[in-house]
Design goal:
By secondary structure, the chain is mostly helical. It contains 15 helices and no strands. The relative contact order is 0.12.
Length: 412
């Protein structure tokens, strides 16, 4: 198969597979509202927020580093062993956080179960890294699509038959774990080389990627902190409303992010070859794409926002009072996509200081304004705090990108 044909196949399968995965995850948000109400939606949303932070640490920001390790400094076995370590730490940390806060016993166990379910993604991620390095993102897309469908079927069966959110999440965990163990790991081994040894071990890899892990964790916290204050200050019901409005807006972020992922190797090649013209052209196209996405998102809300929510949450008319919340949340999703793209590019550039500085700036703003804005404006304040933090984060990351590009390609 020609390189160009394989690239098209990668783009198609990866995008469709990840959109299916996200759509199935979004279906869980709809089902929990339809079958359990906004209280259960709030319980699930809190678990999702904490699990996302655990997942970000478990992945350790290492995927792009792994894929762009073209010289083989670290062996494939080292990448797998490092993931076992970060997974273990992440799950223990999620458990400590759940039991250290004044959550109900049910909420604590839901957090643990959902964290276990999401952390399967971290295990799969390292095996998918081998596939991506071999430019087989089509297999990655198939995996996401099937695991998404497994999750959706498990969630429907659990809620309908058991009517118990905790047991339903445990069923999702079991089905995804089986697929990851027997399919994802098998495919990853096919493209991995466990006979080859690198020049450094697990500790050296974790130490070198520590800035990536820190940036990845901080990056999730930028948007997680406002949600934390939302749940603590406004309660699980308001958190349920916020998450129910945010879910359809996040479709933009997921679609845009996974459209970009297959091009990481292209950006890495342009950077390593010092093709400044090609690199700048690619970045400009990405920026134009984000701007168009923002405009299309706002137009979609203006034309069909209220109608869409009435369809998605049929029989729950109270959600329509929050329709205008879609506007700032669309802004948040597009900004989040832009930040993720910048972080990928800074990782390719190996500009670790810039990654840390940009994410620290974002989390500092998030911590400073989330409480007062949530108190003053309710769930809208949560959205405003998230958007302001992302804007600051994006600006700082962009400045470091500009400086590092100037050094790589020269004043030209």
């Amino acid at each position: 198969m020609s390189d160009q044909k394989q690239m098209r196949r990668n783009l198609l399968f990866n995008t469709v597979g990840n959109l299916i995965f996200f759509a199935c995850q979004y279906l869980t948000n709809l089902l929990v509202v339809w079958l359990g109400g906004y209280e259960d939606a709030g319980l699930l949303s809190t678990a999702m927020t904490i699990a996302s932070a655990a997942l970000s640490f478990a992945c350790y920001g290492m995927r792009t580093f792994q894929v762009s390790d073209l010289s083989g400094k670290y062996s494939d076995r080292t990448y797998v062993q490092s993931r076992i370590a970060t997974l273990s730490i992440a799950f223990v940390a999620a458990a400590v956080f759940a039991f250290a806060n004044s959550y109900s016993p049910l909420q604590k166990y839901i957090i643990l179960a959902y964290a276990g379910y999401r952390l399967i993604e971290a295990d799969v991620d390292v095996w998918h890294g081998f596939l991506q390095r071999a430019e087989r993102m089509d297999l990655v897309g198939v995996s996401f699509g099937i695991r998404g469908l497994l999750s959706a079927v498990s969630f429907v069966a659990g809620l309908v038959l058991l009517q118990n959110l905790l047991l339903t999440i445990l069923i999702m965990l079991a089905t995804n774990l089986l697929y990851a163990a027997f399919v994802d790991r098998h495919q990853g081994r096919t493209y991995a080389d466990f006979q080859k040894t690198g020049s450094a071990g697990v500790f050296a890899l974790l130490w070198e990627c520590a800035p990536l892990a820190l940036y990845s964790f901080l990056n999730v916290l930028v948007s997680s902190v406002p949600k934390y204050f939302c749940e603590r200050l406004l309660g699980t019901v308001q958190m349920g409303y916020f998450n129910s409005i945010f879910a359809p807006a996040a479709i933009i972020q997921v679609g845009a992010t996974y459209l970009f992922v297959p091009f990481i190797t292209t950006f890495a090649r342009l950077w390593n070859e010092k093709d400044g013209k090609g690199f700048r052209k690619a970045v400009t196209l990405a920026a134009a794409f984000l701007a168009a996405l923002l405009l299309l998102g706002f137009a979609g809300v203006a034309v069909a926002g209220r109608w869409g929510l009435s369809i998605l949450y049929y029989g729950k008319p109270e959600i329509l009072a929050y329709t205008s919340l879609l506007y700032p949340l669309i802004g948040c999703t597009v900004l989040t996509t832009g930040v993720l793209i910048e972080c990928h590019l800074l990782t390719i550039m190996r500009e670790m200081k810039g990654l840390i500085a940009g994410n620290i700036a974002g989390i500092a703003v998030s911590l400073a304004i989330s409480h007062p804005l949530t108190v003053g404006f309710g769930v809208y304040g949560t959205a405003f705090a998230t958007m302001a933090a992302l804007i600051v984060q994006m600006i700082v990351l962009g400045l470091f990108m500009l400086l590092r590009s100037h050094r790589q390609f020269g004043a030209k």
